[in-house]
Design brief:
The complex is a heterodimer. Chain A is an alpha+beta fold. Chain A is built from 2 helices and 3 strands. In chain A, strands 2-1-3 form a 3-stranded antiparallel beta sheet, with helices on one face. Classes of the chains: A alpha+beta, B alpha/beta.
């Protein structure tokens, strides 16, 4: 069964408050050149092989795994 | 007017809403179970606050696909009244009954306090007996209450007069400092295009009796009762 790995992140136009706080902590640790920390979600699942797998995965992401109003997602399929 | 209060696993303001409707407003009310599809002939559905399904994935994301929500979506599309409070507002956004989304408060913290809301329009069933610009004192209790939407949604909301409440100071001035969570344009509550669905982060059901610190929340329910006759 193919394994799907999805990463969901907040849209760049939205403030990622968690990312901002973590970036501040990294700066405190003297990693002052670290910028644009974004925190997202990682979801993996396996699904039956099919010809329209891409369409199906996109549907799953658009419907439930991500909220297109506030989030972007990307995924990879490993067989 | 018959009300139905939905119970999801994790709802925790369902009893407050039930109490307000039954004991304060003296209207018939029953609970609606998330696994049912039958709305029991209610005239208004209340989607209460809480942490439906543990807020897993995103607030409201799982609740949106519960069997009862299919019925609520059809009910709302037929013009039925729906009030989503706090987590209920999040569920209605996830259900696309209302536009936009609620994300983590700017300050990262859960905020539980009394706030002032300015009534932005009386052109809605939920504010029909309130005066334009009148302030209501109602508590908020949320970690993810920052309202966001894209520019086209925002212009539709403003042009169609669909922003119902904004966070303000006690005198009714909408200021940066009176916006508790960073919501776009201090938005605290909105309605849909057909004005039969209200979503708001503050809890009117927790402000229904002077003994609770404020009875201003009653005004919203009383407006609806009068409007719906």
């Amino acid at each position: 069964m193919p394994k799907v790995k999805v990463t969901v992140t907040l849209k760049p136009s939205l403030l990622d408050a968690q990312g901002k706080v973590v970036q501040g902590a990294l700066h405190n640790l003297s990693y002052t050149d670290v910028e644009q920390v974004r925190i997202g979600k990682y979801i993996e699942f396996s699904v039956a092989e099919s010809d329209d797998l891409d369409t199906k995965v996109r549907e799953i992401c658009d419907k439930l795994l991500a909220n297109p109003v506030i989030e972007d997602y990307r995924y990879e399929v490993a067989s | 007017m018959k009300f139905g209060v939905i119970r999801f696993p994790g709802s925790n303001c369902d009893q407050d809403a039930f109490f307000t409707i039954k004991d304060v407003l003296e209207q018939p009310v029953e609970y609606l179970w998330h696994q049912d599809r039958d709305l029991h002939g209610v005239d208004c559905v209340v989607v209460p606050g809480g942490f439906s399904y543990g807020d897993y994935l995103r607030c409201g994301a799982i609740a949106r696909f519960s069997p009862i929500m299919d019925s609520v979506i059809s009910f709302a599309k037929r013009g039925g009244y729906v009030i989503g409070i706090c987590n209920g507002f999040q569920v209605l956004c996830e259900s696309h009954l209302l536009p936009g989304a609620l994300v983590k408060n700017d300050g990262q913290r859960f905020i539980c306090k009394q706030v002032t809301l300015r009534t932005e329009t009386t052109d809605s069933p939920f504010t029909s007996t309130i005066i334009q610009g009148e302030t209501l004192t109602i508590p908020i209790a949320h970690g993810e209450g920052k309202y966001v939407c894209d520019d086209s949604t925002y212009s539709a909301l403003t042009q169609e007069n669909r922003i119902i409440f904004r966070y303000s100071d006690p005198l009714g001035n909408v200021l940066e400092s009176s916006n508790p969570n960073g919501s776009r344009d201090s938005i605290a509550g909105i309605t849909n295009e057909t004005r039969n669905v209200l979503g708001m982060m503050p809890h009117p059901e927790r402000a229904s009796d002077p003994a609770l610190g404020s009875a201003d929340g009653r005004r919203i329910f009383e407006s609806l009762l009068k409007y719906a006759g």
